[in-house]
């Protein structure tokens, strides 16, 4: 396979001694030299799932074998519903049975679920082993593979058990998006749109002009969107690694969205679908606070609709939404805090939402 080495872009997540590169380009799974420096002992453990393994596992193994690197493989069931402690133990079981050492890197080959679980396993196995992200979905390439958030779900709440643990490398091969189902591509677009809404208005305008190209999987457009998203994420993470301030803005739509995912049952709604409907709810609430107007909300809704994403939330009942949102990680001092839009392109974290306005949003944005 011919690889154009000219089109790879490399960004850096600036975290001092723990800084790491994000490589973005077409055909990077064939680039052994990008991985070689991070595999000192010629052995890795690859964690993937039943969907991705038939597509890309053999290719990654072949690339590693070409430079003398052997691999232990862990193939998990695919789906958000398996992002739990039982599945995590399957990773530990494989690492222990194969006597993986502290110098054995774990490679996450897959989407956000695989990346989150592999990262958490890496953070906790032998109290910390090296970790490499090879994201194969748009959502993982633009969001979950960058920044070191790892974890698993609990029946009472999404991503409530985890650790901040940075990878040594992120390798985003845009060619893997060619096998991504349309609904998964759309789900990733929710996180791409998010960056424009919270901090990058010129990017939002670019997305409005280029959404059709992105959905048609235009290589250049996708690479631009991925790189721009990763640059935004890297800048935020470098400024606030452990989410004590600015990083919380990356959760636009997530308080509502996580409630949708938990309330519907993990895996029924894709994460990006929950974020899309949740972002419309956040925009509605921002309008009720008088920060943005109806035209802004319509603009946001139109872009999500063009991306093929849901803009109406499921009707879990207002009490259920409030119960689930009360378990959100941004709750502080018992008070719910929301990421809302002061204006399109500028988000804030706000904890003084009048209960009556929140109730109005919950009633206005859901259907049965």
From TrEMBL:
<dbReference type="Pfam" id="PF01761">
    <property type="entry name" value="DHQ_synthase"/>
</dbReference>
<feature type="binding site">
    <location>
        <begin position="136"/>
        <end position="137"/>
    </location>
    <ligand>
        <name>NAD(+)</name>
    </ligand>
</feature>
<dbReference type="Pfam" id="PF24621">
    <property type="entry name" value="DHQS_C"/>
</dbReference>
<dbReference type="GO" id="GO:0003856">
    <property type="term" value="F:3-dehydroquinate synthase activity"/>
</dbReference>
<dbReference type="GO" id="GO:0000166">
    <property type="term" value="F:nucleotide binding"/>
</dbReference>
<keyword id="KW-0520">NAD</keyword>
<dbReference type="InterPro" id="IPR030960">
    <property type="entry name" value="DHQS/DOIS_N"/>
</dbReference>
<keyword id="KW-0862">Zinc</keyword>
<keyword id="KW-0028">Amino-acid biosynthesis</keyword>
<feature type="binding site">
    <location>
        <position position="149"/>
    </location>
    <ligand>
        <name>NAD(+)</name>
    </ligand>
</feature>
<dbReference type="InterPro" id="IPR056179">
    <property type="entry name" value="DHQS_C"/>
</dbReference>
<dbReference type="GO" id="GO:0005737">
    <property type="term" value="C:cytoplasm"/>
</dbReference>
<feature type="domain" description="3-dehydroquinate synthase C-terminal">
    <location>
        <begin position="188"/>
        <end position="331"/>
    </location>
</feature>
<dbReference type="GO" id="GO:0009073">
    <property type="term" value="P:aromatic amino acid family biosynthetic process"/>
</dbReference>
<comment type="function">
    <text>Catalyzes the conversion of 3-deoxy-D-arabino-heptulosonate 7-phosphate (DAHP) to dehydroquinate (DHQ).</text>
</comment>
<comment type="similarity">
    <text>Belongs to the sugar phosphate cyclases superfamily. Dehydroquinate synthase family.</text>
</comment>
<feature type="binding site">
    <location>
        <position position="191"/>
    </location>
    <ligand>
        <name>Zn(2+)</name>
    </ligand>
</feature>
<dbReference type="InterPro" id="IPR030963">
    <property type="entry name" value="DHQ_synth_fam"/>
</dbReference>
<keyword id="KW-0547">Nucleotide-binding</keyword>
<feature type="binding site">
    <location>
        <begin position="112"/>
        <end position="116"/>
    </location>
    <ligand>
        <name>NAD(+)</name>
    </ligand>
</feature>
<dbReference type="InterPro" id="IPR016037">
    <property type="entry name" value="DHQ_synth_AroB"/>
</dbReference>
<feature type="domain" description="3-dehydroquinate synthase N-terminal">
    <location>
        <begin position="74"/>
        <end position="186"/>
    </location>
</feature>
<keyword id="KW-0170">Cobalt</keyword>
<feature type="binding site">
    <location>
        <begin position="78"/>
        <end position="83"/>
    </location>
    <ligand>
        <name>NAD(+)</name>
    </ligand>
</feature>
<feature type="binding site">
    <location>
        <position position="254"/>
    </location>
    <ligand>
        <name>Zn(2+)</name>
    </ligand>
</feature>
<dbReference type="GO" id="GO:0008652">
    <property type="term" value="P:amino acid biosynthetic process"/>
</dbReference>
<dbReference type="InterPro" id="IPR050071">
    <property type="entry name" value="Dehydroquinate_synthase"/>
</dbReference>
<keyword id="KW-0479">Metal-binding</keyword>
<comment type="pathway">
    <text>Metabolic intermediate biosynthesis; chorismate biosynthesis; chorismate from D-erythrose 4-phosphate and phosphoenolpyruvate: step 2/7.</text>
</comment>
<dbReference type="GO" id="GO:0046872">
    <property type="term" value="F:metal ion binding"/>
</dbReference>
<keyword id="KW-0963">Cytoplasm</keyword>
<feature type="binding site">
    <location>
        <position position="271"/>
    </location>
    <ligand>
        <name>Zn(2+)</name>
    </ligand>
</feature>
<feature type="binding site">
    <location>
        <begin position="176"/>
        <end position="179"/>
    </location>
    <ligand>
        <name>NAD(+)</name>
    </ligand>
</feature>
<dbReference type="GO" id="GO:0009423">
    <property type="term" value="P:chorismate biosynthetic process"/>
</dbReference>
<feature type="binding site">
    <location>
        <position position="158"/>
    </location>
    <ligand>
        <name>NAD(+)</name>
    </ligand>
</feature>
<keyword id="KW-0057">Aromatic amino acid biosynthesis</keyword>
<protein>
    <recommendedName>
        <fullName>3-dehydroquinate synthase</fullName>
        <ecNumber>4.2.3.4</ecNumber>
    </recommendedName>
</protein>
<keyword id="KW-0456">Lyase</keyword>
């Amino acid at each position: 396979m011919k690889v154009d080495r000219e089109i790879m872009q490399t960004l850096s997540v600036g975290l001092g001694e723990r800084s790491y590169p994000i490589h973005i380009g077409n055909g990077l799974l064939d680039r052994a030299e990008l991985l070689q420096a991070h595999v000192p002992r010629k052995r890795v453990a690859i964690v993937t799932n039943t969907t991705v393994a038939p597509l890309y596992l053999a290719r990654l193994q072949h690339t590693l074998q070409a430079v003398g690197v052997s691999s232990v493989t862990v193939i998990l069931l695919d789906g958000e519903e398996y992002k739990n402690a039982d599945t995590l133990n399957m990773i530990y079981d494989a690492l222990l049975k194969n006597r993986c050492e502290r110098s054995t890197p774990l490679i996450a080959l897959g989407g956000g679920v695989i990346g989150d679980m592999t990262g958490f396993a890496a953070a906790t196995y032998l109290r910390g082993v090296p970790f490499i992200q090879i994201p194969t979905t748009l959502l993982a390439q633009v969001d979950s593979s960058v920044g070191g958030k790892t974890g698993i779900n609990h029946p009472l709440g999404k991503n409530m058990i985890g650790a901040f643990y940075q990878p040594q490398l992120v390798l985003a091969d845009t060619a893997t998006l060619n096998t991504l189902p349309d609904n998964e591509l759309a789900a990733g677009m929710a996180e791409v749109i998010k960056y424009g809404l919270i901090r990058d208005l010129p990017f939002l305008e670019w997305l409005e002009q280029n959404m059709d190209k992105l959905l048609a999987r235009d290589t250049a457009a996708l690479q631009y969107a991925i790189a721009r998203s990763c640059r935004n994420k890297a800048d935020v993470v470098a400024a606030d690694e452990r989410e004590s301030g600015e990083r919380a803005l990356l959760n636009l739509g997530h308080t509502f969205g996580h409630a949708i995912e938990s309330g519907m049952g993990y895996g029924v709604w894709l994460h990006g679908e929950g974020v899309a409907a949740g972002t419309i709810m956040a925009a509605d609430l921002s309008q009720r606070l008088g920060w943005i107007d109806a035209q802004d909300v319509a603009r946001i809704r139109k872009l999500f609709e063009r991306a093929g994403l849901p803009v109406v939330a499921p009707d879990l009942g207002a009490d259920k939404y409030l119960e689930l949102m009360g378990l959100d990680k941004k709750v502080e001092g018992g008070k719910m805090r929301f990421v809302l839009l002061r204006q399109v392109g500028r988000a804030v974290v706000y904890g003084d939402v009048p209960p009556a306005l929140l109730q109005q949003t919950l009633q206005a944005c859901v259907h049965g």
